[in-house]
User: Fold these one by one.
Assistant:
Number 1:
Amino acid sequence: MSSARSRARRLALQALYEWQMSGTAVGEINSRFLASPESNKADRVYFSELLLGVVNHLTDLDAQITPVLSRPLDEVDMVEKAVLRLSAYELQHRLDIPYKVVINEGVELAKTFGADKGHRFVNGILDKLAVKLRKVETGSA
C-alpha cells in the first residue's frame, strides 16, 4: 500500500479506530491526523472524506453491514469493524473506485492491523457487500 490513497485509507482506519474506542470528537481527530507527519504522503482530502463520511453515514453503513454478518456487529473486533465501515463507505459512496480495489485495500488493512486471520472474515463480508451494493459491477444484477 504505497499510493497516496492507500495511505489515506490507512490513516482513516487508524482515526476511525481511535474514534470508536475513545469517542473523541471526529473533528478533533481529523485535525490531529492532518497535522501529523504521517499525513504528508497521504491524500489528505481523501482521508478527511473517508473519516467524516463514515462517521456521518454510520447508521446507514452499519445497516448495510449487519445483514451479511454471522454475528452481531457489536461482537466484531474493533479493527475489523473499522475496516468494514471504511470499505462499505467506499462501496456505497465512491462508485469511481472499482469494487475489487475496495475489497483488496480492506483486506490489506485487515492483514496489517487486524487479528490473526481477521482478513479472511473481512474478505468474506466485503465480497457479500460488493454483491449487494455493486450489483451491476459484480454482475449480480
Number 2:
Amino acid sequence: MSERFTKKWESKRDDNSFLDTLRGTVKQQPPLKPRLDQAVKRLDMQINRLDQANEKFAQKDKALFTKLVDAYTKHDTAHANIYANELAEVRKMSRLTMNARLALDQVSLRIKTVTEFGDIVTTLGPAIGVLRSVNVGMCGVLPEAENELGSIGDMLSGLMLEAGSGSGMTLNFGNVNEDASKILAEAATVAEQRVNANFPDLPPGLTAGSANSKSQT
C-alpha cells in the first residue's frame, strides 16, 4: 500500500504548521475510512428498512391467507382465487425485498472487512455491482430505498476510484462481475428458502399454478 493511500486511509497528526495543515485540508479529500464507515451506516439503515417492509408483507400475507381459507371452506372459489393471486403478488414482493436485504447484508459485511484490511478496490468493485442490481430490483417496490441505494452506489464508486488512483491498483472486471453474481445468487437462494418456509402453501384446487408463475416473474 503506497504512502499516499495510507494518508488517505486514516487522518494522522503531524508537526506541520497551522498554515500547512490548512492547505492540506483544502487540497486533500477527507480520509477514506470515515467515509466508508458512513456508507456502512447508510447501508445498515436500508437493511432495517427492508426488514420492516418484509414484516409488513408477512402481516399482509397472514391476513390474505386467512381470507383465502375462509372463502375456500365456504366453496367460494371466485374469491379464493382472487386472494390466491393477491398472495402471489405479496410473496413476489417479499422475495424481492428479502433478496435485497440479504445481498445488502453481504455488501455491508464486506465493507466492514475493508476497514480492517484496507483491500478497498477489490472489495468495492463487486459491492457496487450488487448495489446496482438490487437498486434495479427495488424499482416500484420501495422507491425511497431505490433512491438511497443509488446514492450510496455513487458514493462507493467515487471512493473506489480515489483509492485506486492512490494505491495504483486496477480492477479485474471479470472477477468483479463473477463475485457480484455469486453474492446475488446466494442471496436469491436463501430468500427463496425463507419465503417457502415462512409462508403456508395454498389450499389444493385453486389456481395455484397461475399464482406461483406470477410470483416468479
Number 3:
Amino acid sequence: MFNKKKARLRRSTRTRARIKRLGSYRLCVYRSPRHVYAQIIDEGKAQVIVSASTTERELRDQIKYGGNVAAAQAVGKRLADRAMASGVSRVSFDRSGYKYHGRVKALADAAREGGLQF
C-alpha cells in the first residue's frame, strides 16, 4: 500500500546520509499545512544551531497566515540573519523529501538572498 509520508521520509534519508558524509551544516525544512519550520543542524554534534518558524511571535505579527510562500520567505530571511550572526555561512540544503517547489523553494531563495551559501 502506498503511503505518502513513508515515501517522503524514504527520499529524505538518502539526502541526510549524503549530507552526513560531507560533514557540513544541514538546513532542514519541515512544512505543515499551517506553518513552515527551518533549522540549521550541526551533524557532528547533532545539535541545532539556529532555527526559525512561523510559530514565533515576531513572525506571526508580521504575516497573516503561516502556510504560504510569503511566510516561507520570511522564515528563510530570518534564518539566514540568525545564521550569519552565529557565524554560519555555508550549509547543505535538506528539503526533507519535499519537492523543490512553492514554499520550500521560496524559503531556500530567501535564505540565499540573506547570505547563506548552498
Number 4:
Amino acid sequence: MLKKLIYISLIVLLAGTVSAQSPANDYIETYKEAAISTMNQHGIPASIVLGIAIHESASGTSKIARYLNNHFGLKGKGGPKKIRSSYKGYENVESCYNDFVNYLQAHFTGLFTKYTPADYRGWALGIQRGGYAHSKTWASQVMAIIKKYRLYELDSTANNYIANTVYKPVLLSEASNPVVYLVKKGDTLLEIAERFNTTVREIKTRNSLTNSLLKIGQELYLE
C-alpha cells in the first residue's frame, strides 16, 4: 500500500512539472512558424520574436494576451477593447505580430542593418537599450528564455538567407529616412532637441522614453 502511494505521488509530481513547463512549449509549437516567417521576411531572429512574446505575454496566458491578443506588451489604442487597459488590442494574434514588426522598424531601424538573425544577443541588448522595457534585466530575461528552450536553433533556418543578403527594414514609409543619434557624455534631451530642431516631447514619444535620463551609447531616433 505504501509503495502504491509513493508511486502515485511521483506521478502527480511529474505531471505537475510537465504542466508547469507546457505553456511555453505549447506557445513555441503554435507560433514558431510565424516567428520563422517573420525572420525570413524582415531579418528579426525567430528566437527574438518568440523570446519576447513568451516573456511579455507569459506564454500567451496573460490578461492582455487572452483579451487583447497582445503578445508583445505594445501600448496604445486600437483594436477591440475587452478590458480597460493602456495596451493595444488586436483582432487576432497575427495582427499583433505584424504590429510588432512595424514597431521595431519604426523605433529600432539601426538594428536591422547592424545585426543578422544569427545574433539574438545583439538584438536583445539593442532593443533594451532603445527603451523597449524599463527593467535593466529585460534583455537577460529574454535571452534566458531563448537559451532554456533552445530557440536559437530556429535562427539557423535563416543561414542560407544570411549568406547572400544584407538586411534592411521594410520601412513604414519608403520616403522615411530615420536619423539615429548615439548619445555622448554630457548630452541632454533638451540639447539634442535643439540641435536637431525638434522637441524633447517628440524625442521621448518617438523612442518610447518615460523620463529624460540618457545613457552613453544609447540610440535615439530623431526623424
